[in-house]
Design a protein that fits this description.
homodimer; 240 residues; mainly alpha; Arc Repressor Mutant, subunit A; Four Helix Bundle (Hemerythrin (Met), subunit A); 2 domains; 3 strands; DNA-binding
Chain lengths: 240, 240
DNA sequence: GCGTAAGGATTGCTCACCAATCCTGCAATA
DNA sequence: TATTGCAGGATTGGTGAGCAATCCTTACGC
């Protein structure tokens, strides 16, 4: 296999270039209708225009988006798999309402993944650390401009950048799912600003440690960050 | 919300009992046809009866399983999301053929998750360690009886049990996806027996360390295990 | 050998339809 | 009063036919 590729490179350099193009094929490939519908619904949910618990009737969605009910069904199934929506058999699909246990479970996973990525991530090169710094800057800028929604997004970018230190596409995708679920948690409670603001300086601290190469210290800081965030969220649930 | 539940308990104990029943609701819920089709296809793939690269025409599947093409499409979409199948737009869906890079990516993720679960898992109680021991015993028994397929399954149970030490349902599911992908890797190459057998004693070693409470040492052992397995698989790819 | 056109097969998607299930409201009953 | 029973309407789960677009194959012409 490898020998074959090498051979091709020797014989015909252009072929190798073409072969590498096949990796971006999915980018060229026209997005399917079902995907676009799923993207649209997902955005409505993550942006908070569809609140947790809201019902999504297939017929209504179909006519609203100008696509058939079958296509809608396909999209909804995908979002159910992503935990953005929940299907209740013979009743319909609803925007998920993460409960206390969901929060605890998500944080158990995050406490495992994020510090480990910071501590032992195999792709923690300068480029990846720069991405972390960029997310921190994005958050500070958004806060300075009073754009609180953007600050929340920047915070997600920060955590995504931390996991990216592991250099695993599959882990990145898993993290995206967890963060999408966190968005739903935030939409269930008030005070997004109050929640995220204190973490701006924490993010900066973690990033500085990373830039200084002190990964163990950074990992410890991440763990404390996550513990504090979980405590705060659970307390908010109690007060609900 | 919480106050309301407590109130109900005080006023009417039977209501609390009924409320607890809602937690097993999903167990009652009749499985949908699309799900069953997905399960069937997934099993065909993981059992190796559908080889990597095999094509799955929607029409043929539908008539073979006695369901409509729409239902088949829904099932296939789900399996594509699980990475068991790959969809090539306007061409069809195929059993995935994990390449070298897929193997490297999966192992990057596993090297992050598994040692971290062993090292810092928050649910590493006696019960969970017993589950690890059970998987080790299962593998030894299968090997003693020359049931090599069962030994491979037992090995997967072992790694699932390691991740279960973290106590996160979401992490468990992510691990299931990674292991399903590994099954496809094994089906692409010969010598399942030769590959798995040497790891029986390693599994036992890791389990002993866990039982002795030496989690750090166990985690190091898991890391070396994964490194060795990845090297062996990549070498097998080169020889392909 | 290489480009190209015709033909067939499959996918992506729509539409119309039906049975089963669920929800609602209302009457009947204890 | 509170529960039970029961039409009715709405929604879901699933089917089948059908059509345009795309892809693959093959044959043809140069």
């Amino acid at each position: 296999m490898i020998a074959y590729c090498v051979l091709m490179t020797v014989v015909d350099p252009a072929s190798a270039a073409l072969a590498s193009l096949s990796q971006v094929r999915h980018a060229i490939a026209r997005t399917t209708t079902a995907e676009r519908v799923a993207d649209a619904v997902r955005e409505e949910v993550t942006e908070g225009r569809l609140r947790p618990g809201a019902r999504l009737p297939e017929q209504a969605l179909g006519t609203a988006l100008g696509v058939s009910r079958n296509t809608v069904r396909e999209s909804l199934s995908q979002l159910v798999a992503e935990r953005v929506l929940v299907r209740e058999p013979n009743r319909g699909v609803f925007v998920a309402e993460p409960d206390r246990e969901a929060v605890r479970d998500v944080y158990r996973a995050r406490r495992l993944i994020e510090p480990a990525a910071v501590r032992h991530g195999e792709a923690a090169g300068p480029v990846e650390v720069v991405a972390v710094r960029a997310a921190v800057a994005e958050g500070l800028a958004a806060a300075a401009a009073d754009r609180w929604d953007d600050m929340a997004s920047a915070n997600q970018h920060f955590h995504r950048a931390l996991v990216a230190l592991a250099g695993s596409l599959r882990l990145d995708q898993q993290m995206s799912l967890l963060l999408a679920e966190m968005r739903l948690v935030f939409h269930r409670m008030p005070g997004v600003r109050e929640f995220h603001e204190p973490y701006l300086t924490r993010n900066d601290t973690i990033c500085r440690l990373l830039e200084a190469g002190e990964r163990e210290a950074a990992a410890v800081e991440v763990t404390e960050y996550l513990n504090a965030a979980e405590r705060q969220l659970l307390a908010a649930y109690d007060a609900l």
